[in-house]
Amino acid sequence: MELPKDFDPIMGDPPREVPLGNAPLLRAIAQVRFPPITGIQNPDFIASFQEAIRPDYPVLRGEQVHRIIFAAGSQAQAAPSTIWRFHDISQGWRVSLGSDFLALETTKYVSRIDFLERFGLLIRSLEDRFHPAMVDRLGIRYIDRVSGNHVGDLELFLRKEICGVLATPLKSQTNQMLTEALLNTREGASLRARWGFLPPNATIDAAAIDPIPEPSWILDLDMFSTSAVLFDADQLSQDAAAYAERIYSFFRWAVTKEFLAAFGGGA
Fold first, then answer.
1. Which of 192, 199, 177 is nearest to 143 (CA)?
2. How confident is the model over 49-95, as pLDDT tens digits?
3. How far is CA 56 from CA 43, 98, 102, in A?
């Protein structure tokens, strides 16, 4: 379960996964962005996509949003747009489809294999029905939150580089502590790592991290590439898997064996 002392979480080979029976994973998100396809705004045009994913995500809601359009020589205008939200019955899984993006997010994560298989099926359905020409961005994001009694164990749970001020005499006076690093990875993508201690009712991202009425510690790992490449569902699936593995490498580097044991990891 312990990593080698010289383990490199950014350039090294990903470690063997240690399943956690009670993982503190708050949310997992996968997203691909592409040049706009205006037909996605048409309810008739998305019918075949809905049928393809309806066994897993049977609830469809249309959400109206307004995007700000800037045109040379004229004032900015708010353009209405529809984002299609597909849910499972439990509301634990959500697929979002807009004119320029497809996203999968869950608060009911089961395993990396399950998550990546679901995302792979979605991007293949997108490719089969809408034929995007290019990819503008591919991103995978995992957000962990430690709260309750475990907040008192952070010095034991985290390596000293991650624990930071919480491993010093300043711990008792620390109300909030946030760190962010943007890292270049072996895969040629970027990993934005944010972590820190939050006071009650605070968040660093209201869209993905709900505030809670107690102190908590957050680890937010977002790996992405903004290189413009041809849209290929098979290649995107492979890249998404590599990104998830790299995120896990950083997670394993950041936490200790005591963390893994506390959240259900085996020996």
1. 192
2. 999 999 999 999 999 885 655 555 555 555 678 999 999 999 999 99
3. 19, 19, 16
